[in-house]
Every structure is written in structure tokens, then in C-alpha cells.
């Protein structure tokens, strides 16, 4: 009886090694074709682009001079830049702002084939 258990254990171990070997060999041949690139969703992500536009709008106001004319010029240049960039990515961006005495109100709407993102926020002036 002891001999039969020993052979069953050896058969089980040998079978396990063969199965693992087969799967390992198959994975070497299949792996190059089944590789999933995660960079595409990040590159084409509307949310990421929208958040970057918002963050840089805040930075543009923050680093701009207290001079209203310079602030408006910087915002207008930024608006043209992000609208051109959004159209290159296939998005439709609406970026509007109003410059007040103590703050800047910004309204953004991003339209794509997948989603619509909207944000309205106030940035304190320097």
C-alpha cells in the first residue's frame, strides 16, 4: 500500500511539472501578441487633459502680473493655445473667463465622442 501512495505522489508531481512547463512555453509564444498597452487610454484621456487645462489656467492667473491688461493678454494667449491643442486631440473645448477686481471666473466645457466635462471655478487674483 505504501508503494502505491508513493507512485501516486510521483505521478502528481510529474504531471504538475509538465502542465506548468506547457503553460510557460505557451506564454512565451502568446505573450507578444497579447500585450495590452495601457499608454493609449492615458494619452487619449479627456479627464487628464481637462484637469491639466484647469490646473494651468489657475497657474496662469497666479503667475500673471497684478496689471489687468497683462493678465488678460496671458489668459487670451492661454485660451488660444488650449483651444488649438484640444482641436488637435479631436476635442471641442469652450474656454471663457471674466476678469474681476479681485478674482477671475473661468468656465470650461470639453466635448468629445466619449464624454462631456464641465467646470466653473474662481481664481483669486494676485
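^ Assign residues to that structure.
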Amino acid at each position: 500500500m505504501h508503494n502505491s501512495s508513493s507512485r501516486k505522489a510521483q505521478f502528481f508531481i510529474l504531471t504538475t511539472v509538465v502542465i506548468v512547463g506547457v503553460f510557460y512555453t505557451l506564454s512565451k509564444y502568446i505573450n507578444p501578441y497579447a500585450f495590452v498597452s495601457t499608454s493609449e487610454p492615458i494619452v487619449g484621456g479627456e479627464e487628464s487633459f481637462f484637469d491639466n487645462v484647469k490646473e494651468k489656467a489657475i497657474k496662469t492667473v497666479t503667475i500673471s502680473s497684478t496689471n489687468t491688461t497683462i493678465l488678460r493678454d496671458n489668459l487670451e494667449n492661454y485660451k488660444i493655445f488650449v483651444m488649438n491643442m484640444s482641436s488637435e486631440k479631436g476635442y471641442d473645448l469652450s474656454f471663457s473667463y471674466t476678469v474681476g477686481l479681485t478674482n477671475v471666473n473661468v468656465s470650461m466645457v470639453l466635448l468629445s465622442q466619449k464624454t462631456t466635462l464641465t467646470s466653473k471655478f474662481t481664481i483669486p487674483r494676485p
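The helical segments are 2-30, 39-43, 46-63, 68-88.
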